[in-house]
TrEMBL record:
PANTHER family: NUCLEOID-ASSOCIATED PROTEIN YBAB (PTHR33449). Residues 6-33 form a coiled coil. This is Nucleoid-associated protein Clow_01487. It comes from Corynebacterium lowii. The keyword Transit peptide does not apply. Keywords: Coiled coil, Cytoplasm, DNA-binding.
Length: 108
């Protein structure tokens, strides 16, 4: 059996690292929107989890029913957070799997 070519392995690792860094930049620059109540509340967040915008339909602003509004905001945030996770898996998943078990677990 021949020894693996270390230069080739290092080049592959450097290429994967560059691809991973690019995917991370794309993820952080992306935005997703989550909603609740059929769009009555919408939250937009970055791929890094920063909330950028909150839209609340006037029809759900009822001083007598603050609980419903709170539930809708919580639901919209959860939906947006789930979408960030899905986006991260789409952009980072294939790359983290290619890095083997060592780094793959840290990215998830």
């Amino acid at each position: 059996m021949s020894q693996p070519d270390m230069q080739s392995i290092l080049q592959q690792a450097q290429q994967m690292q560059l691809q991973l860094q690019q995917a991370q930049k794309e993820l952080l620059a992306s935005e997703v929107s989550g909603s609740a109540g059929n769009g009555l509340v919408t939250i937009t967040m970055t791929g890094g989890g920063e909330v950028k915008d909150v839209q609340i339909s006037p029809e759900v602003v009822d001083p007598e029913d603050v609980d419903t509004l709170q539930d809708l905001i919580t639901g919209a945030f959860a939906d947006a957070h789930k979408k960030v996770g899905e986006l991260a898996e789409t952009k980072m998943g294939p790359l983290s799997q290619g890095l083997g078990g060592g780094l793959g677990g840290m990215l998830g």
